[in-house]
């Protein structure tokens, strides 16, 4: 018995049950929509898609996990808006990159 079906190229719209309170019409799947949508709707649609990826704590099929301690999540969120590519503004990133390349050699 098939519980779900794989999406195909013919599925050219995104349908979101939980974002329907913000968006009444279907959104294009493979291109940018003509008009903008509310930020709440975009969040809900992306969040719904991410939930389909499963729960990493329940992954019993392999010995690989994507779970990490909550403190790591907090550090990532605290630094996510920094432009670490700007080597003049953040010179330590140059040192980190250089040491990373030395470790891999």
UniProtKB/TrEMBL annotation:
One of its GO terms (biological process) is L-glutamate catabolic process. Keywords: Calmodulin-binding, Pyridoxal phosphate. Its cofactor is pyridoxal 5'-phosphate. It comes from the Eukaryota. One of its GO terms (molecular function) is calmodulin binding. Pfam families: Pyridoxal_deC (PF00282). InterPro entries: Glutamate_decarboxylase, PyrdxlP-dep_de-COase, PyrdxlP-dep_Trfase. GO terms for cellular component: cytosol. Belongs to the group II decarboxylase family. This is Glutamate decarboxylase. It comes from Salix dunnii.
């Amino acid at each position: 018995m098939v519980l779900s079906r794989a999406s195909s190229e013919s599925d050219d719209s995104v349908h979101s049950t939980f974002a329907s309170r913000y968006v009444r019409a279907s959104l294009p799947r493979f291109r940018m929509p003509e008009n903008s949508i509310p930020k709440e709707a975009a969040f809900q649609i992306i969040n719904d898609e991410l939930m389909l990826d499963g729960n990493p704590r329940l992954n019993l099929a392999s010995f690989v996990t994507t779970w990490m301690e909550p403190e790591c999540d907090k550090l990532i969120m605290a630094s996510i808006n920094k432009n670490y590519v700007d080597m003049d503004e953040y010179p330590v990133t140059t040192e980190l990159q250089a040491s990373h390349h030395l470790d891999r050699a």
